[in-house]
Amino acid sequence: MSTSLVVKNTFICALDAEALSPVRGVCRRRSSSDSLGSTTCGSFGQSDDDSWEGTTASGDDGAGASAFAEELEAGGAGAAAACAALAFDPLGSCWLLRAMELGGVGAAKVVSTAMAGGVCKAARSAHACAVLESLICMLSTDEVSFIASEMCAAAMQIATHVHGHAVVCRLLEYSGGAAPTLALADAVLAEDAAVLCCHKFGHHVAMSLLSNGLTRHRRAIVTALFGRLPRFARHRFASSVVVQALSQCADEEGGVLAAQLVATPVEIVGLAVHNFGVAVVRALLDMPAFRPHVMVVLAKASKRMMKDKFGRGIMMELAGIGRAFVEADDAGVYAPGILA
Predict the structure, then answer these.
(1) Rounded to two decimals, what is the model's pTM?
(2) Do the beta carbons of residue 305 and residue 267 sit within 8 Å?
(3) For the chain, what is the mean pLDDT?
């Protein structure tokens, strides 16, 4: 077959070189329902003498999940032994969560017994971590105390893990006052609170400590932030911790951070035109003690603010406050054209 070359839109194209390749047919993706429907309990490694072996591992309210939940409530040895293996399996973990939902607290207690001794590994698992979170939500503080106790051995590693940080946050939310959880929080902050605040996943734990931790935990985080506050206020992750500290901490803690931020007017304007620092400025505007000063500084720098997309957004928000609100404020500041 002869071949000719032509130039089309700066591209050299070969004509009649070969027949066009056939269009690839559309392949149907395997749905999760098909996978769940074809998976049996025997595929997860249960023994041959399990009474529930061979039931379908479906995500709906089917016979398999119901039978397994009943086996858990009854304290069946076969079902209890399989809990740990199911928790680490993509389909098995979903099936186990469904069985816990159907079986209630009784089934959750059996699962917690099976998970004991392997919490650190489970917290780092993409599937078993969800089982731990469900246990924390369903059981009492004393019944899940072993989770915090075991994680103390690798507190910082789990707190900064892509899956483990969610387990730590859930413990702080549901069992924040328990002694094992407090020991876990102390172990996390003992290494480096500043690193925790700047970590992609660890900053969620820092924010949870500010909301659910004790006074010593909040002060440890505030102290770490205070050392390099201008940098942290512009950090992608630490800026969220700064906002949480300003909004959640008491005046003697959050007020110290706010006082340092508003001490220099240039710093306020610099944060207002920064993609992450602008959230810190909004938090300062929500603090009645510092709102008047921040509004004055922003009004004086309105020309620079209106040239930046982040600063322009804040100025538009201030414009929506209205003249009546500003005149009622302690400062009584009104900037024509800005706070109309």
Answers:
(1) 0.75
(2) no
(3) 80
